[in-house]
Amino acid sequence: MKEQHYKFLAITFSIIIIWILFGLFDSYDEHNAYFSPWSLYFYLGESMIVGIIISIIVLALRLIFFRKEKFRNNVLYVFCGYLNLIISIIWFTSLLTRILTIDYKLTEYGIPSFCLAIIILTDLYFPRKVTN
User: Fold this and answer.
1) What distance in Å separates the CA atoms of residue 41 and residue 97, rounded to the nearest whole number?
2) Nearest-angstrom CA–CA distance, 89 and 22
3) Rounded distance, CA 89 to CA 67, Å?
4) What CA–CA distance (Å, rounded) separates 69 from 130?
5) Quick one: CA torsion of 129, 74, 116, 10, rounded to 10 degrees?
6) CA-CA distance, 108 to 45, in Å (whole number)?
7) Which uninterrupted H or E stretch holds 93?
8) Are 46 and 54 in contact (CB under 8 A)?
9) Can you tell me the mean pLDDT for 95-114?
10) pLDDT (tens digit per residue) in 57-98
11) What pTM does this model have?
């Protein structure tokens, strides 16, 4: 199981790196030779929304249909946990460096994204023992 989990982690981090690089290069403005901050802001917001929606769907599947151990060893479950964690770290870093303020709309997505990351990662790495 550990080898498969490490394979899922490698796939997850590869997808997240491609996701972040696409957003970074998509916001590059060739005419002014700089990155557009508004484009990065909206890309972060869209990434938060997509991460939250996918995580809610995956958590609902986990709680309703797959109460057993087998669904935790899934690449989509690992991906959702780390995607939300990385996105919330980017959001929190933007708050600390005062790029964003708490008044922005992203706060409504940053806090649930962080909470979903904690829930999924806790379920992954600190499993609850279920006795039948």
Assistant:
1) 14
2) 18
3) 29
4) 10
5) 120
6) 10
7) helix 75-96
8) no
9) 81
10) 988 888 887 766 666 678 888 889 999 999 999 888 888 887
11) 0.79
